[in-house]
Amino acid sequence: MRLLPGRILARATALPAIAVSAWLLVAFPLLALGVFTPLPAVVLGVPAVVAACVWIPRLIPDPDEDVPWWPVAAVLLIAAVFAAVQIAFHAEALVIRRDPASYAMYTVWIAENGYLPIPQQRDLIAGDDPLLSYGSLAHYERGDVIWPQFMAGAPLLTSVGHWLGGLDGMLVTTPVLGALGVLSFAGLAARLVGARWAPLAALLLAVCLPQQWVSRFTYSEPVTQILLLGGLVLVYDALARRTRLGDRWSRAHTLAAVAGLALGLALVVRIDAIRDLLPVVGFAGLMLVARRGQALPLLGGLAVGVGMGLYAGYGLSRPYLEYLSDSLHPLLLISAAVIAVTAAATAFLWRRGLPRTDRVRWLPAAVAALALLAMAGFAVRPLLWPDHGHGSDFTDNWVAYVQQVEGLPVESSRTYYDMSLYWVGWYVGMGTVLFASLGVAMVLYRLAKRQDPQWLLPAMFFVWTVATTLLRPAITPDHPWASRRLIVLVIPAFILFAVWFTAWLTRYCAAPGRGAASPFPARALAASVAVAAGVSMVVPAAATSHAGTGYRQDVGTVAATEELCAALPEDSSVIVVDPGMAGNYMPLLRNVCGVPTAALDDATQENVDRIVDAVHDRDRTAVLASEEWGQLAELTDGSVEVTAPFHVSAQMDPSTLMKPPTGHWRFTGNVWIAVLRDPR
């Protein structure tokens, strides 16, 4: 088999979604059965991933265009450099303050134990004493167990890093996943815009701050990116060959099933992927009306992935879904309505066929104009419709604090959702936003004329997600934290449409008689336009990224955690007597150090003595923990040494509301302990 550059680019950019899907297809059932340990995972998961990565890429068709080697080398180099830089700058977020450490604690628990839920181990502390609590930030106490927050998908992947390299291995896994997300996006750009434009698209995504930022933490966004963008890549490849309903099973059917599975498995990673997948349902209905043979395999794969995702949510993360019920339940109702409407519309159009939008002369221009009007509406929204109402006192207080830090008028109810389009502009440049607006208008215009059918699902997918996300990002609005909501699909959508417009403009300038009298000046003009447009997009994105990513967050936390765990006797039962510390550090003590841990809600001397005696009655060593030396010194009356095995003073991300993040804040963390052995 010849190593053609186009073939290598097509297959390499599809591999991340294939590998991740194969791993989740094996790993998630193991976790659900409570046997997600290295031996069965390696015995079953590694062959599945290897087989999928060897067999499925062979089904991917070669590109129609003649692809030179340089785009292949450039894309692979960009992904490799991205991974190296993010590994060098990876964060050590283990103390729960926001979501990254929550995912890290989830990973550590399942990597070391292989099952959920987490036992409270009350019998190793003080039984059912009513003053003891076991829940904490991102860990829900239910009955006699604890359920971690979030979905299982990302921890199932970062667990591999933990098995290979402990805490450090876990923390450098996500930078690799982020690089694979860049590679997947390059593959989508190569298919929809052209292989020669894939490096520009990959570079824009790689240099933007949110892509770098989420890849330095144990966030779920890079995995979701791989599955959704990679799923679109596989759908494109599946539809490259035309098949009809009733045709014998072929490569196209297999690729369609794999594509549906990859898209559906995004739900195992993030529950809000339900919203992103709704256009796929409508697209499958259109495929059925068009009698495309890939429709049913696509729906079948999607159903399997979504089914696993729903079990991941309601079987392993139910308290988290209960917490999200105010937004999740309406989304489920909307999803049911979309499925019902799609089924009815498919039945109605079954004999009539697809509408001939190209015969309505005014429709393509109207669709394009509507897209531009929508973007203009998002641009003027802050002036006309400033958004208010978090629905959370905690968020109100935090926004008020950040407003004071930033010197803004204190309006704690401001959500800043009306600024969402400008958030995108911060990170990819307003030039990219402008090019993308023109690009999406032109793509929709061509689709309404029934041209470029390969763009139909990506356009449905991106337009729906961009519109719904920009309308209501539904996230605490301080940055860089809020940029998480943009990075999976919104920023890639803007980059993709902007690069498509740049490619179209370049071809337009290079066409004979367009802007020049002879071929050479036309080519020179086209090259100048391409370079100028690329620079206008890359430079602003790189400038924002350079100002906001030149540091590592929480450095020293891994070493401090190891020192803390080493300082705890093997038979420890830890009682956290500092209520301010309990939510942040209890998962660290329980999940990483592996010791039974509870918080004492009322740490009076009498209550502490009673709990310590109960621990001693169980032939265990009581350990008091607090962020304050004075509290432990007072409770122990100086009878034991109070030490601080955990001490971290490090840089952390800032919070901004009306400008992109720059510089850093400070994080200081201390855990003081007093080891109380049984004197009897």
Automatic annotation (TrEMBL):
Keyword entries, A-Z: Membrane, Transmembrane, Transmembrane helix
Transmembrane portions of the chain? 12-33, 39-57, 69-89, 169-190, 197-216, 252-271, 298-316, 328-350, 362-384, 424-448, 455-475, 487-510, 522-543
| Top-level lineage group | Bacteria
Q: What is this protein called?
A: Dolichyl-phosphate-mannose-protein mannosyltransferase
Taxonomy of origin reads:
Bacteria, Bacillati, Actinomycetota, Actinomycetes, Streptosporangiales
